[in-house]
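INTERNAL AUDIT FORM
Audit reference: QA-55
Scope: verify that the stored structure record matches its stored sequence.
Auditor: D.O.
Record contents follow.
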Amino acid sequence: MSTCSRPYANVLLLTLLFGPRAALAEPEKAKPADSFVDGIGVNTHLLFSNYIDNFDSAIVPRLKELGIRHIRDGILLDDEPFKDRIRTLGAFGVKATFITRPPQFAGLVPWVKEMSPFIATLEGPNEPHNEPTTYKGLTGMPALKPYQMDLYAAIRADPDFAKIQVAAPGIDWFPAYASVGDLDAWCDLGNFHHWPPSTGETPYTATAPTDGLYKGPGGNPNTGLLQYARTIASTKPLIATETGWSTTQIKPTADHGWDPGVSDQAAARYSTRVALELFNNAVKRYFLYELIDDYLIQVDVKQHMGLMTRDGTLKPDAVAVKNLIGLLSDAGPDFAPGSLDYTLAAAGISLVDDKNFKTGEIHHTLLQKRDGTFYLVLWNEILSYDNAAERDITVADQTVTLKLATPIRLAKTYRPLDGPVATAAYDNPTEIALKVPDHPMIVELTPMQAATEPADG
């Protein structure tokens, strides 16, 4: 670990060197660090044998180790062992988002009453375009709206369920959005599935976390997932109940290019970045798919989507997520974050998001903990894996100059993908030359004095 500090660079020289690439002329208001951490969830299948067989030996200890507080799963109404598994996870603070289905609706409210301490959200039917169902004599997509209306009415009618939110169904196929309709009045949360490889590119060559968020198939700027989600829930906060990457290596032309897979190292880069990208787009919660490899499924690409292997070993993406959570966790009461007065500048790479996932850009998120410490997270949003060649892409670190106007007593840098220990420290810094990789770098900034205020009320 090195210790150093630098004086401010001359503003004119900075302008001549970097010109319009300097960013953030005004102080930026931070967001609570724990709001990002609390947004990270993971899909589970606690009714599947790979979860049941490994529940005590891997599922429980690894979920505790990761620090992930939210899971997403289906429902078994009358299965006591399934409910006990939910209670076991709930005992150390894990809350669940549950998928509901029309055939279970008659018994849903009693089940929710029993399990309500462990429920954060109930969502409409999962991918109804892929899993057609029948409700009130209607079949397929036409059954969706009356079911969502009844689900929302049933949950909102019971004051004991006041803290349980109701989410719209999750959709994973771009053309299906047009068949859902406006459900804004019957949900508390909008919902979408963000599978970056599913943008319809042919032949499929590569993917990155922002693929599909802003542009749909063919690069259409009017059919990105963030816009499509608003056709279902126009005003409500959004959640993304499925996102992630398989590490099964298959040709990008296989299975219609749905998910050709990436390497373990690329998955580590992408899984941490996708959480930050979704958070930056005001997505409240984002569920990685999934906790443990489904080694019993017959679909090759789905056998290696877990954060851990079948024996419970954490994969590189799980370790990176664990370190990210460990550095940024700050559970506690609400507070009003302060602002950081700083600028960023870089030569040869943009600091402005052009909504094109195939160009390298420096993205950032500014967070703050209750003790006043700021956490500036930076990363190069660029392709890290070549699917066509099935190989990692070596991405050089980018030099980014961080200039601080807010008085900082101590700065430290971290790379969660590489480990939880600080890589450098700077006393009383006013300017730091950072080497930003294609995975998150965290700059911890301790102000001369606390900059936070208690929340009103």
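Auditor finding: record pair retrieved intact. Confidence is low (pLDDT under 50) at residues 1-21, 451-457.
Action required: none
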